[in-house]
Amino acid sequence: MFRKILFFISILTIQFATAQNNTQAEQVLSNLLTTAKTTAIKTGFKLIATDKNSTQTTSGTFTLKANKFILEMDAMKVWFDGKTQWSYIQQNNEVSITEPSEKELADTNPMAILSGFKSKCLIRFSGKIKSDQNHCIEMIPNVKNNDIVKIEVQVNKTNGNLFSIKITTKNGGNSILLTTNFQKGISIADNNFAFNTTKYKGVAINDLR
């Protein structure tokens, strides 16, 4: 009987420690998302997308202010002012105007996918990935038929900056976003998050709204 009591106590202790760790992991993620909502952020990035047949790498800069963002890459630049999105293709000197859905925004804004999945996932510290510098967090979707099977997030332990996001899909592909020169509290006016036609002479406008 005494051994059974000890066994149940050990099980309860493990469950309590696990729940406590999960809560701490959720708090780290919540702090990151709160920072993204309350202060303007700018970061360089490298995105590595891999599937069964190929690997593609792109890089650029990403500026975020609440629900507004600017995405800059060599061949493309995207502005979103909270409602309207402008996607400019330099090679064609053409801009497409849309009002994207939440799912479409998640394909462009990494914070949007974290925010959208936060309430739909088991959030915990990773048991496999360890880092002295970063919190390593796993987000496991509660819905098993979701295309995304796991999101792994690394957040700096000292300053709370985003270090990386890795998304693994059901078909075995994955996308890894690595940040560089992550800056918080930058000064940027709201009108910078809209396309300015005066800066792009002769631009072709494709309004898809």
Features:
alpha+beta, globular, 12 strands, 12-stranded mixed β-sheet, outer membrane lipoprotein receptor (LolB), chain A, 209 residues
Q: Could you tell me the number of beta strands?
A: 12
Q: Could you say what the CATH architecture is?
A: Clam
| Separate helix tally | 3
CATH topology type: outer membrane lipoprotein receptor (LolB), chain A
Determine the N-to-C terminus distance: 70 Å
Helix/strand-derived category reads alpha+beta
Unreliable spans are 1-20
Secondary structure layout:
Layout: H1 2-38, E1 41-50, E2 55-65, E3 68-73, E4 76-80, E5 85-89, E6 94-98, H2 102-106, H3 110-118, E7 121-125, E8 134-141, E9 148-156, E10 162-169, E11 174-184, E12 204-207
Parallel strand pairs: 6-12
Antiparallel strand pairs: 1-2, 1-11, 2-3, 3-4, 4-5, 5-6, 7-8, 8-9, 9-10, 10-11
